[in-house]
Amino acid sequence: MVDMTGQLCHYATHLDSHTGCEVSAVVRRGTVALCTACDALRSTVGKGQAATPVPALSPVSLLDWISQAHARLTSAEAEQAAAVARARQHGHSRAAIADRLGTTRQAAQQRFSSPHGNQHQTRGTRSPTAT
Ligand SMILES: [Zn+2]
């Protein structure tokens, strides 16, 4: 995994509400790290907290941020697939799993059915609309 240098501003992912975010935090208020622009705009975040400068590291590399986010996403997807497979092995219904995923049973089945993981399924015997 790529090691990021600088620290992300708390609002770096808030693209709509903090359009002027400079991404790299320069100050910390309590546990919240903020860039100069977001620190100037803060309202309740860090209220009453004294500003502590963030150690002067290199600014956040946006391309390294992409690499790190991609690595976390890949890892999270693998964990989710394993959790779904284990839930199925332990008898949880596709409907219950889909509910936890916020999707339809059919979409969950399409996404998490693997060519090697279907040995316990009886394919083609259930109606596509069965729940
Ligand atoms: Zn910011």
Structure report:
Helices cover 38% and strands 7% of the residues. By secondary structure, it is mainly α. The protein folds into two domains: 1-60, no CATH class; 62-112. It has a three-stranded antiparallel sheet. A hairpin with a 2-residue loop joins β1 (27-29) and β2. The chain is elongated, with a radius of gyration of 22 Å. The two termini are 41 Å apart. The relative contact order is 0.12. Mean pLDDT is 83; it is low at 117-128. The site of zinc ion has 10 residues, from α1. Residues 9, 11-12, 18, 21-22, 34-35, 37-38 line the site of zinc ion.
Low-pLDDT sequence parts: 117-128
Q: Separation of termini?
A: 41 Å
As a whole number of angstroms, the C-alpha radius of gyration is: 22 Å
Principal-axis shape equals elongated
Number of strands: 3
Number of helices: 4
Structural class by secondary-structure content: mainly alpha
Order of helices and strands: EEHEHHH
Count of folded domains: 2
Major beta-sheet overview: 3 strands, antiparallel
Strand content: 5-15%
Query: Percent helix among the residues?
Result: 25-40%
In order across it, which strands form the biggest sheet?
2-1-3
Compounds present?
zinc ion
| Integer average pLDDT | 83
